[in-house]
UniProtKB/TrEMBL annotation:
<keyword id="KW-0472">Membrane</keyword>
<comment type="similarity">
    <text>Belongs to the binding-protein-dependent transport system permease family.</text>
</comment>
<dbReference type="InterPro" id="IPR000515">
    <property type="entry name" value="MetI-like"/>
</dbReference>
<feature type="transmembrane region" description="Helical">
    <location>
        <begin position="65"/>
        <end position="93"/>
    </location>
</feature>
<dbReference type="InterPro" id="IPR051204">
    <property type="entry name" value="ABC_transp_perm/SBD"/>
</dbReference>
<dbReference type="Pfam" id="PF00528">
    <property type="entry name" value="BPD_transp_1"/>
</dbReference>
<keyword id="KW-1133">Transmembrane helix</keyword>
<keyword id="KW-0812">Transmembrane</keyword>
<keyword id="KW-0813">Transport</keyword>
<feature type="domain" description="ABC transmembrane type-1">
    <location>
        <begin position="18"/>
        <end position="201"/>
    </location>
</feature>
<dbReference type="InterPro" id="IPR035906">
    <property type="entry name" value="MetI-like_sf"/>
</dbReference>
<feature type="transmembrane region" description="Helical">
    <location>
        <begin position="183"/>
        <end position="204"/>
    </location>
</feature>
<feature type="transmembrane region" description="Helical">
    <location>
        <begin position="24"/>
        <end position="44"/>
    </location>
</feature>
<protein>
    <submittedName>
        <fullName>ABC transporter permease</fullName>
    </submittedName>
</protein>
């Protein structure tokens, strides 16, 4: 069976796996973004706190994804829980690091001006600092998403959702007539999803970042 024939016969299952893969990555990125930005906001004013946050999240990223999921299985079981926890943890580093860098890069004179007109610290953060730090934060989100697209395939090891199941089925049946088609379909599906997500982030950046800041 040719690759295109395989896609035609399995398109419904492949679309389902692709949807589950994209959904898992998107939901984990939302959680990772919220946690990462909060960590950045809490730590960016202190040099040692910022370094500690960056070191801690980078240490998490050094743990092999297969080992991470394997360690989580006895704690939370199989399926979605270990997938969500692992992806969220892996997505933190670029967001935390870029949040800290972006917030530290805000012009102090702008913050002082906002303070001078009576803005509270929370108002300055929400209306001045975070909007100006948004471009590097968005870059961190894009980097995290690309990483998680590939890492999410490992979730199939724990019976998680996504295109990794197609890849694992192909690897587990090496030598059969459709093994290569399964691996190729899963891999290409992940690449296509990664490109679509990145295009969406480019559009989001154009819609949310003023031209003057982009330039």
């Amino acid at each position: 069976m040719s690759f295109w024939e395989y896609l035609g016969n399995r398109h419904q299952q492949l679309l389902t796996d692709a949807y589950q893969h994209a959904s898992a990555v998107f939901q984990c990125m939302v959680v990772a973004t919220l946690i990462g930005v909060v960590i950045g906001v809490v730590t960016y004013r202190s040099e040692w706190a910022g370094s500690l946050a960056t070191t801690a999240t980078s240490t998490i990223l050094t743990i092999p994804s297969l080992a991470m999921i394997g360690l989580l299985i006895p704690i939370v079981g199989l399926g979605v829980p270990p997938t969500v926890i692992a992806l969220t943890l892996y997505g933190l580093l670029p967001i935390v690091r870029n949040s800290i860098v972006g917030l530290r890069g805000v012009d102090p004179s702008l913050v002082d001006a906002a303070k001078g007109i009576g803005m509270s610290r929370l108002a300055r953060l929400l209306r001045v600092e975070l909007p100006l730090a948004w471009p590097p934060i968005l870059t961190g989100i894009r980097v995290s998403t690309q990483m998680l697209m590939g890492i999410a395939a490992i979730a199939a090891y724990a019976s998680g959702p996504g295109l990794g199941n197609e890849i694992f089925r192909g690897i587990g049946s090496l030598g059969s007539k459709n093994a290569l088609n399964q691996v190729l379909a899963g891999t290409l599906g992940i690449i296509v999803l990664a490109l679509l997500f990145d295009a969406a982030y480019v559009l989001l950046g154009r819609l949310t970042i003023p031209r003057g800041i982009r330039v």
